[in-house]
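Troubleshooting log. The previous structure file for this entry was overwritten by mistake, so regenerating from the original sequence record. Sequence copied from the archived sheet and checked twice against the printout by T.R.
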Amino acid sequence: AFFGSIRDEYSTVMSKLRVREELPIDIALHIIERIRERGLEEILKLTEKYDNIKLSKDELLQKPSRGQVPRCIIESYRRLELCARSFLSNCVCRVGGFITRLDWIKGEPKSLEPVNRVGIYVPGGKYPLPSSLLMAVAPARVAGVEEFVVATPPRNSDLIEWVAGYLEVDEFLRLGGVQAIAAMAYGIPEIGLEPVDMIVGPGNAYVTAAKKVISKDIPIDLIAGPSEILILAEDGVPEEVVVYDMLAQAEHGPDSMSLALVTSEEFARVLREELLKYSNESIFSSLTKRGGILYGKKEEIIRLSEILMPEHLEIFGEFNVSKAGAIFEGIGVVYGDYGLTGANHILPTGGTLMDRPGLSPFTFYREFNGVYAYRQWGDLKAQAAASNLAAQFARLEGLEYHARSAEVREKIYKNGLP
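Regenerated output below.
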């Protein structure tokens, strides 16, 4: 992990954190070409090979069934849809004690013609991610999108299907990986699946590569890499808050970036000691590879932050910064992860903000090319009140340190004290 002054570590940080992930474009292209040539037969064969499950053609595409949806999901969607409507009218939303604003960097908010039919990819596996489904449907529906196709890997997909049913999604596709992206982009005539007009949603490197391949034919949201958090903190911030936020980001995978920039060497050493208590945790490997704690003057911190343009930027103190996928002023990323601030969590990574911003209703307008950052803040009571919902949602997705990131705030802030 990085540790030291910004001045001494700058070159090392930039060389390690600004290396773009090599996407398996050739593999994705080869699979997509085979699917376009051989159709349904190839899709079923690939699903059996990669997901270790044999499906019939009748099991691939259905209207989603309804099932029990937890309250935390329902509340998250309510806030996301409410704020999506507010962003269209005045780019500001107030919900649950939080305030979220779209800060425009390039272009301006204006209503255009929406796409009609959107495909949404939702990561699956041991712990599916229903939060990503909410993040895609809410702004698209507010923008005027009329038809939705949701694709997710076939194993352990019940919760995603129930949420899709609750959201009244039109079609539910039990497909994952490259084959799901190809199916939504070009259709599967044998089962009546029509092509979509746009594809959105996060995924692994193969899904991302597939999205890049098909983007020559239909629009996509963005090309996202490993998740990132950059924390800017003055002295006096509770060290548990900073450390749990770093660990929560590390939980996303071995290539995640978790970096804290602080204003004194003394505070940096306190944070390092606290962080090292978790060095035996499996998630610590990403901190060793792409994480750390640096200290420096405020102007050095601000300059590095504006260069990195991270996916998530947490600010504790007075730092005049404006470029990140989402900016959290004095609040935790976990509240944005689960829609409790009303902001979206499908965001640009790897310093690509100026190419494409995070999802909002504007994403789904044809010809839209503006750039904005989500900026959100809230009082201590709002964070304490939302912590239980955030922790419930996090554990639903198997993200224990996300849950602890929320719970530590409830513990510290429940009496309204920093």
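The longest strand covers residues 98-106. Archived copy saved in two places this time.
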